[in-house]
Design a protein that fits this description.
Elements: H1 2-81, H2 85-113, H3 122-136, E1 140-145, H4 154-175, E2 179-186, E3 190-197, H5 211-221, E4 226-229, E5 239-245, H6 246-249
Parallel strand pairs: 1-2
Antiparallel strand pairs: 2-3, 3-5, 4-5
Helix pairs in contact: 1-2, 3-4, 4-5
């Protein structure tokens, strides 16, 4: 009798274990499907964002820029025609403001249209962006890129460029920083990048995550990247460390 009960208990335990394993497998598959669908949704959003960026860049470059240039020429003509000193001074101020507006339009068009493609590698576009910020921004960016960086897929490379752009915009707008340091290294399996500034810093848990930070985190997650925000003290600036599997982004 005891042997029969032991056998029954053994069978029940085996059935429960089998049932538990089955549930675990089903839940794991559902989770993977959910993550896949989430990644596909994020990719669709990113693709739409890139199309929108291209449209805005064309509008700024082809329409707004020329319109401002024509207005500047017309003001120059008025400046030549008038003989009143106060009018000349006013027109000169307006012309200087227009010149600055034209420069800003070109800068905006340049920033939002930058992308990795067959003609420009990821590191070339990143260096171009850093040079651009150093020339026209009010901060200094120091970039260090490993020499053996493999070829990065254009779409994934463009997405990473957007990450750096969002980080730089966040630094310029909120950090009150004067310096930014970007380091990119690799090993046979992973790409590592470290972004830090010397601004006032923040703790991710204590701030409302805006669209910029959400875009950064989602773009990193979509390539299975791991990210660590601001492990340093609040007063030591903002810091982001990221590790991305090379097979997810390289050609």
């Amino acid at each position: 009798m005891d042997r029969v009960i032991l056998i029954i208990l053994t069978v029940v335990i085996l059935l429960l274990i089998t049932f538990g394993i089955g549930i675990y497998i089903v839940i794991t598959r559902l989770y993977r499907q959910l993550r896949k669908r989430e990644a596909e949704a994020i990719e669709s959003i990113i693709t739409a964002q890139e199309r929108e960026r291209a449209t805005i860049s064309r509008e700024v470059h082809d329409n707004l820029g020329p319109m401002l240039s024509i207005t500047q020429m017309q003001i120059g003509y008025l400046q030549e025609q008038t003989e009143l000193s106060f009018q000349k001074e006013l027109l000169t101020k307006i012309q200087n403001q227009l010149r600055e507006a034209i420069r800003q339009c070109r800068n905006i068009s340049h920033m939002i249209s930058s992308e990795v493609n067959s003609a420009k590698s990821f590191q070339a576009v990143l260096r171009e962006q850093v040079t651009f910020i150093n020339e026209f921004g009010n901060i200094t960016v120091q970039l260090s890129v490993t020499e053996n960086l493999p070829s990065i897929d254009p779409d994934k490379g463009t997405s990473l460029i957007r990450v750096f752009q969002e980080l730089l915009v966040n630094t310029i707008r909120h950090a009150e920083a004067t310096e930014v340091f970007i380091e990119i290294e690799t090993n046979p399996e992973y790409l590592f990048f470290n972004y830090r500034d010397n601004g006032k810093g923040f703790q991710l848990k204590t701030v409302t995550t805006g669209l910029g930070i959400q875009n950064i985190t989602k773009r990193i997650e979509i390539v299975d990247g791991r990210q660590v925000w601001n492990e340093q003290k609040v007063d030591s600036g903002m810091n982001l460390q990221v590790m991305i599997p090379l097979h997810k982004i390289s050609l």
